[in-house]
Structure formats: C-alpha cells, structure tokens
Model the fold of this input.
Amino acid sequence: MKSTLLLERSTQNMPLGVADSYRYWGPNETVFVDQLTDGGFTDVDGKEFIDFRLAYGPIILGYRDKRVDEPVIQWIREKGTMSGFSMQLDSEVAEKIKSICPNIQKLRFANSGTEAVMGAVRTARGFTGRQKVVIIEGGFHGLYDEMMWKSDIESWDPQSGKEPEVMSFGSGLAAHSRDLIQLIPLNSLQALQQVFQKDGEQIAAVLIEPILGNCGSMQATQEYISQLRKTCDQYGSLLIFDEVKTGFRVARGGVQELYGIHADLTTYAKAMGNGYPIAAFGGRSDVMDMINFSEQGVVHGGTYTANGVGLAAASATLDVLIKTNALRTVEETGQKIMKLLARVFAKHSVPLSFSGPGSMFGVHLSETVPTNYRDWKMTDSDLYTRFAKSLISQGIMLEPDSREPWFLCEAHANIDFGRLEDVADTALAKALQGS
Ligand SMILES: Cc1ncc(COP(=O)(O)O)c(C=O)c1O
Done:
C-alpha cells in the first residue's frame, strides 16, 4: 500500500512519521490523503471516503468550497499575504463576527484555537488579577501546558467512591501549571459550588465548552449554564466559552445563541475559516481593553496575527454563513443521519443515545444520554470503536473514539444516505461479531 510506504518514509523525517501525534493510527492504518472534495476525500491508495471527521471541525461548508477559495486566491493575487501592519479587512471581519455574535464587543485575531484560548485566559488573568482557571472534565482547550491536565476517567473506578486522578497529556509540561487548573465534572452544581466556596477569590475564570466538542458533544444543561453565569458574577470571576468547535457551527452565534446566555470572553477558530488557519477571541470591551501598553496591560500579538489569507477566508466563510441557509442544511443533514443510525441500532437491538446538535453530534452506546465525562464510562465505547473501524474500512471516515463527535458540513446534504444506512448496518453486524 502506498500509505504504508509513505509512513515508512515519513518516519525518517518526523517523530511517529506524522506532523501531529493524533494522526498516527498505526503502521497500516495511518491515513495519507491525496485529494479533498466536497464532503470527503480520496486517499493515496485511491480509496474514497465520506468524511465525518472533517479535520476535527473546521470544514463547515465542504472541502475546496469555491465560495471561500476563490475570494482567498483573488485576495492573494490582488493584495498579497501579510505585512505585519493593519488592514481595513481586520475591522471588516470583526464587524461580521459582531453582527452575528452580540456577546462580542471587541476582539483580537489568532491563528489557532490554542492561541485564542491562551489570549483569552491571559486577558482574564490580567483583568481579574487572579491566577486560577476552572475547567471541565472531558473538555479540551489546546496543547499548551496548563490546558494539558485532565481527569483520568479511563482508569477511574466509578464504584471506588474516589475522585478521578488528575494526569497530564504526556511529559514536558511545566509542573507548576497543574496548580493553576481546577477540574470539575460538567453539570454538577455541587462541584461548582464547592470549588468556588474553597477558592472563589482566586478564580480568574471558568473556561468551558458548553457542548463538549471533545467529549461526545455532551451538553451543559440550561440550568447549569445559568448557575455558572451567576456564580462567576457573584465571585467576580470571568466566564469564558471556548467556542473553537461550536462557533459558527451549531448556530450563527454559536452556543450563546442556543443558550441565550453570554460569556465575558469567547474563543473562536475552526468553522470561522472553513479550513484556513484563522481564530479569534473577544468579548466585553472593558475586559478586552486590558490589552494595552500600561504597566498592568496584557500583551497580545504575533507575526502571523490577522494575516490576509486567514482573514480573507474568514470574511468569505462568514458571508456564506450570514447570507445563506448553510447552517440549517448542516443541522438538518445531521438530524437525518442520527435518525438513520437510530434505525440501524434499533434493528440490532443495541442501545443508542445521541448528544449535541445535528451539526456535531455525539453517538453513545448507552440507554441514557451521558451528562458528563464520568457517565461516558457507562457507555459501550469498545463496541463503538469496532463499529467506527468497520465504517472506516467501508469508506466512511470518522474518529474511532466515541469522545469525538460526528462533524457535518453543507456538502454532506448530497451524500447517498441509502448507502450510508447499508454500510452502517453491515458495520454494526461486524462489530457485534467482535471484528
Ligand atoms: C474546544 C477547543 N479548544 C481549543 C482547541 C485547540 O485548537 P487548535 O488545535 O486549533 O490549536 C481545540 C482543538 O480541537 C478545541 O476543540
């Protein structure tokens, strides 16, 4: 297989033979893509896939969407890539975001979700003068030291009566970063109350994905988000919504439109540029204005910040999302696929539940919808993985881990749903046989 040969070659050039450790799937399973098209791709061995992984979320319209690519190419031809100076385009894109996200009064741009989270957290610390950040078990906020601590749910015994251990995502982290973070389970008002009663005066912010895009799209309840908002206000802590996955995907105005509750700061990335590297963080003017040159001011910037390529892509993507019903199509297509999967699982009498919206839904093999990462332990994630691997072998790409949602894009409206149902049926039958 060409992909196996390519991996042998790339192993000479990069650790694990890949540019991102999560792309390594094993000596014969690591995927090498040749060409992306609409809602799928062809790999280097000529195999075609419908792709529900979609690069972990950025693709909201489809791969190689001309409505985005052509304005970007035109921008590069006519204006150039970047200069390290300001452009009119900076404000044009900011104003488009503000027109659909009323929670944003001022913002700054970044190049990745990680960078946007770093900017938001630093701004929150600068504003509050406090150090600690509360994060939610099962959330993910990028690969920088303090966000690389997690509750070890995989080894946790729910019957033990003990709290899960906190562990790092690998070595090399600054050890003190552990002390800056406090992990709590989603939807537990008791845990929220306890952490604030103990450390409330030191908490700069709560950082949360209200729909856990890295934990099967499990959703915060409306009551939890309302209480979280009140608690942050009561203690003078900031509420940061990490909308790197949900922004410009679950609704034009992201989760804040769905919940009707605004964060003080929000991070965006992924769907904002339909695959081009562009991100942002922003929120209340008084908080964002902490980014200044005073002695107390927060520093933010970077060589590639607000480069023309990323901004031209964001401008074009936002235009499509604002002017068309693309997001409604994405949502309806996701709902259709959930129904199709429900029929297949019912046929085989396997319990199934979904969490999250159609645009990024989680599939859980359990009678009841998990409410937080601890509940995930009660789902049959091994059967899910066998099911997912069988789908992959038949040309349906997704992450073989039920903590990663199915991502939808507008182009998926044109897939062959009948074929998808047949393939899912065969895949589940095989998975139940243990293969
Ligand atoms: C919610 C969330 N925040 C932050 C990040 C980090 O984004 P990036 O990989 O662009 O640095 C991710 C990445 O998946 C994410 O899902």
